[in-house]
Amino acid sequence: MVAAIETLFVSLSGSKSSIMVLVFMFAYLTHHRGFSTMPAIAGLKKWTKPVMFVAGIWAVTVLAAEGGTWTDAWSKFLVRIVAYGDVVLFYYRPGIIQDFSGHTAFEFIGYVLNPILGMLRLAPYQDPLGYRMVTDIVGERALATILGPNTCFYVAADIFFGPIGGLFYSAVLGYLFSYVRRLFFCKRGLGLIGFTSLFTVSMLVFALPIDTQYFVSLMSDTFLLVFAAIAISYMAVVGARGWVTDLGSVAPADYLET
């Protein structure tokens, strides 16, 4: 419910990513074996296509509200879909490819972990590769307005690993992506925290092939910042179970043994 409300507010920006998150949530929950047999989920499946249609109309409506005609709004919406891999338009230029040819596979680890290292003040923040591509083309005047495209896996593979190593990098990335998705549907015996964590990773993993650095940033922002709250909540629950029982006050170890 919280995720649905957040998606509703985020969709006010007309971003296609908020629509895709909603679609993924419907697909994941309606096909998970723990939910697919529930009557409520069976009824929810009937609303999948209508929700996708309404989400598309909603995105176009938001774009139209920003200014322009309905024709312009539909055109902007289609551009957002077609430009999903817009990094191709910026990277595959002779000058840009040459400027990024000096990177090595050893630099990839530092590049991917830079959001975490920068947050911990262990290393200075680096400009994203997509941002550097745009500034190389349009100049420094883009600094205040343009963030640049996401560095999709095939571009990062070519920059850091080259044409041969890039094949293995892409294969590993595809395997990890598939493994997380398969794990979500096949893993059994998870508690509430475990299932919620796995579901969150399953949603975030879609950012892995889009931009590996962005995926690492999402993971760190999601789990590092909420780990303390989860740990405190867990200790509070364990402490309550250990010391307050129907039989009176007993030690936690005695309670766990019973």
Strand-and-helix sequence, N→C?
A: HHHHHHHHHHHHHH
Question: How many structural domains?
Answer: 2
The percent range for helix content is over 70%
Q: In this structure, how is the largest beta sheet organized?
A: none
- Any idea what the shape is? globular
Kindly state the number of beta strands: 0
User: What is the rounded Rg?
Assistant: 23 Å
Instruction: Provide the structure class.
Output: mainly alpha
Brief rundown of the structure:
71% of the residues lie in helices and 0% in strands. It contains 14 helices and no strands.
Protein architecture, described:
This protein is mainly α. It folds into 2 domains: 1-84, no CATH class; 86-220, no CATH class. Helices cover 71% and strands 0% of the residues. The chain is built from 14 helices and no strands. It has helices at 2-10, 16-31, 39-45, 48-65, 70-82, 87-91, 94-99, 106-119, 129-138, 153-160, 162-186, 192-204, 212-243, 252-257. The longest helix has 32 residues, at 212-243. The radius of gyration is 23 Å and the shape is globular. The model is unreliable at 243-258 (pLDDT under 50).
Distinctive features:
71% helix; mainly alpha; globular; 258 residues; 2 domains; 14 helices
Describe the secondary-structure layout:
Elements: H1 2-10, H2 16-31, H3 39-45, H4 48-65, H5 70-82, H6 87-91, H7 94-99, H8 106-119, H9 129-138, H10 153-160, H11 162-186, H12 192-204, H13 212-243, H14 252-257
